[in-house]
Amino acid sequence: MSQTTSVQFDSVSRVFPHCRAVDNVSASFEGGQIHAILGENGAGKSTLMKLLFGLLQPTEGQIRIRGEVQHWKSAGDAIGAGLGMVQQHFALVDSLSVIDNIMLGYESTSALGVLNRGEAIRNLEKNRQSAALQLDWHQRVEELSVGEKQKVEILKLIARKSQILVLDEPTAVLSPKEIDGLFAILKSLRDQGRTVFVITHKLGEVFDHCDTWFVLRAGKKTGQGSIATARLDDIVRAMVGTDVPPLDSRRPAVTGESRLTFSNVSILEAAHPVRDLSFELKAGEVLGVAGVDGAGQSEIVEALLGLRSFAGEIEVLNCILKSSPTPNESAVQLTRLRELGLALVGEDRHQQSLWLDESVEINAAIGFEEQNQLVKAGWIQRGAWREAVLRWLNSFDVRFNSLELPVARLSGGNQQKLIFARELLGRAVRLLVVHQPTRGVDFAAIRLIHERIIAERDRGTAVVVISSELDELMALSDRILVLCAGRATGHFYREPTSAPFDREKIGVAMTDAAASRSTQQERRA
Amino acid sequence: MRFFSFYVTAIAVALGFILALLLTAFLGENPLDVAWVLIRGSVGSSTAFGYSLFYATPLIFTGLSVAWALKAGLFNIGAEGQMTVGGISMAIVGILLQDLSAWLAWPLALSAGFMAGAFWAWLVAWFKVNRGVHEVLGSILLNFVSYGLAGLFILNVFRNTESANPETLEIGSGFHLSTLEWLGGTSPLNIAFFFALAFAALIDLLIRRSKIGLHLSWTGGSPEFARRSGLSISKQTIGAMMISGGLAGLAGASVILGYMHKAREGFAGGAGFVGIAVALLGRGNAWGVVAAAVLFGCLQKGSLDLDIDTENISRDLAVVIQALIVIAVAARPVFERPIRNWVDRRNKAVN
Amino acid sequence: MDLFVAFIESALRVSIPLMFAAYGGLISERSGLANVALEGLLLMSAFAGAATVAVTQNPWLGLAAGIFAGAVGGLVFGVAAIKSRADHIVMGIAFNMLVAGLIPTICRAWFGVTGGTPQLDRSVRLTSDASFFVAAILLGAILFWALRATSWGLRLKAAGDEPSALTVQGVSAGLVRIQASVLCGAVVGLGGVNLSLCQGSGYIREMAGGRGFIALAALIFGAWKPVQAGLACLLFASADALQMLLQGKSFFDFAMPNSIVQIVPYVATLLLLALRRSTMNAPKAINRPV
Fold first, then answer.
1. Is the confidence metric ipTM above 0.85 for this complex?
2. Are A184 and A321 found together in one domain?
3. Binary contact (B149, C259; C-beta < 8 A)
4. pLDDT tens profile A279-298
5. Which residue in B183, B346, C10, C251 is deepest, having the highest Cβ count within 10 Å?
6. How far is Cα B250 from Cα C234, in angstroms, rounded to an integer?
7. pTM for the full model?
């Protein structure tokens, strides 16, 4: 194992028009190790790695690779110098085959630019590590599972002979078992002398798999060290700035009438089909839905909004939903459900819950203008609208410079608080559906959002929380339903102890082997 | 912010003009002479300016039409066809009901134009919503169909056999819109211009203050969010297209009811297409559309004199200028960024 | 029988410019550049070809000029749409407007009239429809092969479906698109030359008559695939041939007005497009900035 310094940052800063994303960072990283790059969302981790990769240029300072100052202008230069990066959103062309994706940009060709796929495959199979990944070279990428797609990304790096690998949030979409598999691959690459950077915010896997840790907060380096000698508290303090007290103990759930029932529901015409799902949610409780992304969560949300056809029976707020509505019918039905007290916080905030180019003022009330009497006879009541919005935004501690500001300019945390304010305030909410409540949200906002979700429960609202963050679900839920590949694979009840849920068992249910295998086969068929 | 946006648009317009005038230099004209011809021809006298406003009138309607659809994220390039069927319908009503008095005739003709245009655009929306045909293709194909239909009425059904020109019979005198001599001199400028302004005011109010306008822009601005909040995208699409088509359907009023008093082949004269440029330049703001329409109306009128007063260029230069302006407006980001940085730097220096 | 032969013959002839425009559009759209500028490109190259022949009396120079003008047009459209990060459809429509204004302006400056180029004598035209047709079919076959087998095709498809996959490899997806647009223009240029130097005798105003849009419809109908798009062109061309056949004919003593006959190809295109919902095959990143 080589112990030479591989990557060195010398007082590196990167200034954007409105912020210093990376602020005077100096650090050096040894070769042949796995380095964890930690920090909250927006702390500057991705910017730092983009600087390393040549996708951005530093405003001040310099970056040295193996002692040499780098002057790259594009990703191509970085790849040529032996760097490789796996983005959080995979840069794969779904419609192309595995081998075409690996070759893309570095094609080996014969005369007339004809692709030499055979040669590329032979080269990959000669290499022990790439051969060990066991992929069908000719399969189309869209048919692969998330874990397999990640393998394709890593194969691209191996094929380019990258010596320094950067992976941005590689485990966000993987099941616990797939995470172990990923780190096994990364360790074997490390043992060959490669340097690996893993951007993450999951501390568990850092302790299990990484060699060193490095923390950024608000663009500044706040800590670095070896995992062998690290203490969890130190790392958390470096990330957050203060110690985080645990969430207040909560009173037991007082449940009331039924607010949401799924009876033998199947959603088959979908990217991630759901099969034979049954559960009931009562007023005054929080149901957590656990599972890796793409286990059918989005389909369940769309079905209970009445935007998707399904088989079986769904009852929302005492309305039985139409099982195959036309677009117009589902709009009428959804409007009715919202009048009855349905509130929704969508999974993809920017697409599903915000109108990004529009002002904070409009975003904070739109969709409920009728219920809140902000329109009269079809005309917008500007005064009432502004007054209501100010009240709601203050009550959720949303920070903004001006009501006219496009909502896109708010931070992730403030955007999410604004959505909660819009959905929850000003009317009687009876069912709250929250999908990914805190993705891309800072710690302070997470805390406030969690408190408000519990407060809603205590007020007697029925709450569904869908999240891929198990810790979050265990903190919020009275019950946890586990999904794997579209089937319910476990149902866990909160125990009145210090560890209310058995993390291990939930993890096993999330990767239920039988369920995932059967869907894989169906997808291939 | 808003002021800044106005500046950037003004720069885009100026760029379009400068490029086009440079082109005239290449074609052997003195660009300053060309500019003078354009200015004198469009605003040089009250009659000239009357003509400019007369040309601007249909552009206000088609510009509002395209802008309204654009708010909902729909590209209605079929305003020309909707204007054609709208105009023909007005003419048909006018021909069939010769003796109607003005108080009944005007609203009747305008409703006919609106409804015909709305129907024509409804077809586009129907094909989009139910059969997945993109509105750009649907509306351009229906443009060609509308020319055929108009031809059928002008050349066959209602042809005036005594005229040497391909045109219909005269509409009843009750349908004639009053001309505005006090404003436009001897030009055919007529009261349709004020109808257009009234519609602009209405559209402006609807977009800024009404739930309909809010939901329209919501559908265009964030369709998935709107859908998940209980809006029916297909209903919004159909509604938006029908209003858009109706507005375009009214665009023929000024020409048919106010000037020709009959329908001639090709009476729309490209106003539907120029409307696209007007809407893009007006940036989805009803009064911006009016300003853009007046500018383009002046350009059209001014450019007519180019045919006579210059050796080497023709009225088609107006189209070139319009196209260049649209390109410059569409490419705003390219020069917006440097200007913004410059303004920021200057502000900092002042502070 | 003669009628049938005449129908087939005219359908094949009409399909030539459609195929060139559709293949050009295919190259551009598969790279992610939505192309409603086909109409403008056709007009531009038709005019350039005819104008060059009118000046030089050499049809081969005309052919070269048409292809070159198409390529330049493609370059202008591609750079304007990609570099400005504007909506491709807005840019395409503006490009069509620009061409519609420029041609008569230049026409007047060069030939003294705005309507078109002078009539060209048969001896200086490219009279072999068959060669154009064979070229179009060959082009389709080459495109079919190149999309699968070459690195050009691979990068083209990547730029159209997931441009970031190229960017992270240090390949500029924008450049791939601009190159595609230039090539598109050159291919459409062949169609334009066919219009003005083979089927027509010179350039006349608006001579493309919506063919650019029908070609776009054919390309969509053909699910953005070369063989299917080629067949779609033949189908849409038969509707046009039918229209020509019906002109001036009468049925059961009822004279079909020409204005109604003329709309046949447009109505047929619209209905066929509605019949086959092929939009789900669109390149995923079409009309998205890179």
1. yes
2. no
3. yes
4. 999 999 999 999 887 788 99
5. C10
6. 38
7. 0.89
